[in-house]
Each structure stands twice: as structure tokens, then as C-alpha cells.
């Protein structure tokens, strides 16, 4: 059955029309004309607890009967208080203060501004630069774009962006040298120190990184040695370490935070996506009282968003967190992630244009290459990544893919990141479609 649809007044990235969604349940979507899709990328890594969760829906209904919105500067609300308490309990180290926002970009803006205002409040007003990594993705707003390493997204807006210094993200799996992985990890981390010295240590306020690379690098995992060395360097120069956990947080990689795999101790954590799991537009920044106190003492954090911490979004976030624990999303992400990664490795043996299978939990990715040894990229004109996405789409599987370019890198990749409630049978279903498309 094909449904006739009027011309659309909407636009997003392109003018491409997509099927009209009707309903969703678990890992599946159904369109208005009855076709089923597997949500193989959790609608870019948002729907961590899956669709149609009754506990969350009921909790939201109860909250809607009471109040959906109360402006945060007029009233406190119980769901926000409780969610902040629960999230603080999941943060590393002394990160005990939570600032709510409505999305990932807002969380990153908040982190950049908190870092800067902390510097001013503590008499270090020369410090303002935030070093980022290339490639990386931190959001679509101007401040977040300033630390985003992706020329395709930043080039046009260059006159309006304050571009920040960047170091390469550690693509150690592609390097062909005589170093061990651990040595490569240290080599990439030491690039931070070199960059700090180049910029002038007293001008840098923070370093921002995704603990496991997301959109720009397709689940890039750094060698274990990287993390402790990064912390060491930040400490040496009094620089704040910001972990952008917007994609990696909320159990996506098999631990509550991506950085938990290495017992990381960031100074600021940003989150969104999975904490609302698609039930609410919700984001959060976590920081320690150590950073927040001087800022509040200075007369207040000069930043905020109208919808922040609204009771409906927070009630949804709270119910999502309860379900994430009840359904053991961390454990299932590890179990199903191991299974799916094994299947991807098998596919890369069968199809030599897939290389560098990587990731943790259910944030998995691979490169599409012309040569699996040298990782030489595919010819530009072929747009192989888009072709793969389309072929999967036709077969009812949604996967995520990007082409990243700039700074000597030209690479196609794709990611698989289904809801964390996926079963082994459903993993098999996904892989069968992917294999057919490949
Ligand atoms: N940071 C990271 C690591 C992300 O992956 C994203 C979204 N892909 C963002 C920030 C921005 O989040 P949002 O799209 O919700 O603004």
C-alpha cells in the first residue's frame, strides 16, 4: 500500500523524502504503509532502552497530569531533583552537580562556558581556549562547532565560528609503524602536551574529547595507555578535562559512561541522547562543586536554557534510568555487543572492503576501504557508504554512516548501534540484512 502524501513544508539536511513513521516497539519501527524497519542505529544512538517502554510512558502520563512545565528559576521540581541525585551517583570522582539542558549541543555549550567562567572566577582570565580533536563531533551550535573536527560541517560557517586548536584523534589501529598499541596511545596523548605548549599553557582552559569516538570516527577506541596520560597532562597544566559522553553515555558502550572502561576522572561530563532515550529532549552536564562553587559565588553561572530541567523531561529521564537498570542495559550491551562485533569481524573477512572493526558494547563501527591493509579510502565518486545505507534501508535496516574529510583524512565508515535491549535472535536478523546489502 502506498500512501499519497502532500508536499512537505519541512526540511532538514536534504530534501529527500522518507517514509512516514507510524509506530515503534522495542527495536522496530513500522511506517504508515506497513513496512518494518530495524532501528540499527537507535536513531542516532538515542533509543537506548528501545521504543514503546510502558514504564516510561506511564511515568510520563502521571507527570503530565500534575505539571509538564515549571520554569526552573521560579520553581524546583521533584523529578529534576531526583534525576540529578541519581545521575550524580553514576558520575566518576567528585562530579556531584548536574546542570540540565535539552540536547547534546546545549550540553557541550554549557561545558565550554562553565570552563571559561570557572577560569574567570578563579583569577585565570587569560585561559579561554578549548583544545579539541580531529576528527570529532560535538554539536551543531556555534560554540560546539568551534571544537568539532569535521570540515564538511564547519567550513561554510568559518567566519562565524571561533575555531579552537585540535590534535588528531588516535587512529592507532591504522598506523603502520613498529610501535606497540600502548606506545601509540602515549604518542597520541603526548600530542596534547605539544599543542598546549604551542598555544601557550596559560591560554588553554580545557581539553574536550569523546571517550570513544562517535559520529566522526565510527566508534574509534583509543589504546588503554591514552587515558591516564591525557589526565596526567591536563593536571600538569591545570587544564580541565571535558568528556563528551553525549553518544557514549547511558550504557551505550556497556558501562554507564564510556570513560568508565578506563576509570577516567574527567572534570566535566556532557550527556544527552540515551538519558532521554527518545522519550524526552534531555541533556545534562555534570561537574564538581569545586568548579561550580566559584562560578556561583561570582554571581551565578551566566548561562541557561528556558526548557532546562522541566518536570516532564526529567520524569521521563528518571523512568528511563530505572528501566536501564531493570533491563540490565549495560550487561546486555556487553553480551550483544560481543556477539555483533564477532559477526562484523566475520563480515570483514568475507568482504575485504570492510576493515578496522571496532567499538565497545553496542557502539560498533568499521571503515569502508579500497585496501584493508593500507586503509586506503574508496574513490570519492562512488559514495559507497551512502550506497550501503540505502541498500540496508531498502531491506528494512537502518544503519549509520558518514564520510569524513580534511587534514589528510578521507574516510568512509559505518556504525551499528541498536537499542541496548536487542536479543541474540535480533542481532542475527540485523546481520543477515547487512550481509545481503554488502
Ligand atoms: N556530542 C556528541 C559526541 C554527539 O554525538 C552529538 C550528536 N551526534 C552531540 C554532541 C550533539 O548532540 P545534539 O544533536 O543532541 O545537539
TrEMBL record:
PROSITE patterns: AA_TRANSFER_CLASS_3
GO molecular function, one term: transaminase activity
Gene3D superfamilies: Aspartate Aminotransferase, domain 1, Type I PLP-dependent aspartate aminotransferase-like (Major domain)
Any single GO BP term: L-arginine biosynthetic process
One Pfam family linked to the record: Aminotran_3
Cofactor: pyridoxal 5'-phosphate
Domain of life: Bacteria
The entry's keywords: Amino-acid biosynthesis, Aminotransferase, Arginine biosynthesis, Pyridoxal phosphate, Transferase
Protein family (similarity comment): Belongs to the class-III pyridoxal-phosphate-dependent aminotransferase family.
Protein name, UniProt field: Aminotransferase
Species whose genome carries this gene: Pararhizobium antarcticum
Amino acid at each position: 500500500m502506498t500512501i499519497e502524501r502532500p508536499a512537505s513544508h519541512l526540511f532538514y539536511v536534504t530534501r529527500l523524502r522518507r517514509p512516514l513513521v507510524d509506530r515503534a516497539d522495542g527495536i522496530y519501527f513500522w511506517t504508515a504503509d506497513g513496512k518494518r524497519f530495524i532501528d540499527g542505529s537507535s536513531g542516532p544512538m538515542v533509543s537506548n532502552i528501545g521504543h514503546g517502554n510502558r514504564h516510561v510512558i506511564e511515568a510520563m502520563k502521571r507527570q503530565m497530569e500534575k505539571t509538564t512545565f515549571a520554569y526552573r528559576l521560579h520553581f524546583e521540581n521533584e523529578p529534576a531533583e531526583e534525576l540529578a541525585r541519581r545521575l550524580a551517583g553514576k558520575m566518576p570522582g567528585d562530579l556531584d552537580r548536574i546542570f540540565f539542558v535539552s540536547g547534546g549541543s546545549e550540553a557541550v555549550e554549557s561545558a565550554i562556558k562553565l570552563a571559561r567562567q570557572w577560569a574567570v572566577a578563579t583569577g585565570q582570565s587569560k585561559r579561554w581556549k578549548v583544545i579539541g580533536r580531529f576528527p570529532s563531533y560535538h554539536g551543531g551550535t556555534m560554540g560546539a562547532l568551534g571544537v568539532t573536527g569535521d570540515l564538511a560541517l564547519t567550513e561554510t560557517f568559518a567566519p562565524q565560528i571561533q575555531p579552537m586548536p585540535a590534535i588528531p584523534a588516535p587512529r592507532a589501529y591504522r598506523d603502520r609503524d613498529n610501535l606497540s598499541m600502548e606506545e601509540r596511545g602515549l604518542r597520541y596523548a603526548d600530542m596534547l602536551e605539544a599543542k598546549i605548549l604551542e598555544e601557550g599553557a596559560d591560554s588553554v582552559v580545557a581539553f574536550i574529547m569523546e571517550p570513544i569516538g562517535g559520529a566522526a570516527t565510527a566508534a574509534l577506541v583509543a589504546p588503554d595507555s591514552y587515558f591516564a596520560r591525557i589526565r596526567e597532562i591536563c593536571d600538569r597544566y591545570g587544564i580541565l578535562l571535558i568528556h563528551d559522553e553525549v553518544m557514549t553515555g547511558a550504557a551505550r558502550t556497556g558501562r554507564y559512561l564510556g570513560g568508565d572502561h578506563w576509570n577516567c576522572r574527567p572534570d566535566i561530563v556532557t550527556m544527552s541522547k540515551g538519558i532521554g532515550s527518545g522519550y524526552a529532549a534531555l541533556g545534562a552536564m555534570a561537574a564538581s562543586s569545586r568548579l561550580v562553587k566559584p562560578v556561583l559565588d561570582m554571581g551565578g553561572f551566566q548561562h541557561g536554557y528556558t526548557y532546562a530541567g522541566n518536570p516532564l523531561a526529567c520524569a521521563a529521564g528518571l523512568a528511563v534510568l530505572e528501566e536501564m537498570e531493570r533491563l540490565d542495559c549495560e550487561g546486555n550491551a556487553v553480551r550483544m555487543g560481543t556477539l555483533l562485533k564477532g559477526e562484523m569481524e566475520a563480515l570483514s573477512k568475507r568482504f575485504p572492503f570492510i576493515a578496522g572493526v571496532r567499538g565497545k558494547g553496542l557502539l560498533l563501527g568499521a571503515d569502508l576501504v579500497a585496501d584493508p591493509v593500507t586503509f586506503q579510502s574508496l574513490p570519492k565518486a562512488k559514495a559507497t557508504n551512502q550506497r550501503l545505507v540505502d541498500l540496508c534501508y531498502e531491506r528494512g535496516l537502518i544503519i549509520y554512516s558518514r564520510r569524513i574529510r580534511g587534514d589528510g583524512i578521507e574516510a568512509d565508515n559505518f556504525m551499528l548501534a541498536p537499542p541496548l535491549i536487542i536479543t541474540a535472535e535480533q542481532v542475527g536478523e540485523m546481520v543477515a540484512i547487512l550481509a545481503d546489502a554488502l
